[in-house]
Amino acid sequence: MSTNRWLTAIVQVVRIPCSLDTRSAHEMGVNCLICKGLHMGRVERDREIARRRTRRAKLKKLRAKFDTAKSQDEKDEIFAKAKKLSPFISFEDAAQA
Question: 45: which of 17, 37, 74, 96 lies 20 to 30 Å off by Cα?
Fold first, then answer.
């Protein structure tokens, strides 16, 4: 109950209608998460999982670029980017080069 009162107080202080959609909130310069009442931040475990998902997606894209790269210079450049994301990564062709 106290959480609802708190959210209502935030909406009243900022003077935002509760039915405000996200586009209108952005145009007004208001954080849409606060106006919708979804202000709770992530816990550390959720942030860790999000970082892993992002890293995995980036490495997948880099592997695809690596496979389609023609010259060895391009492959070295892509492999260097992948090494920054994950130091222990090894692409098959990079190990042979």
Answer: 37
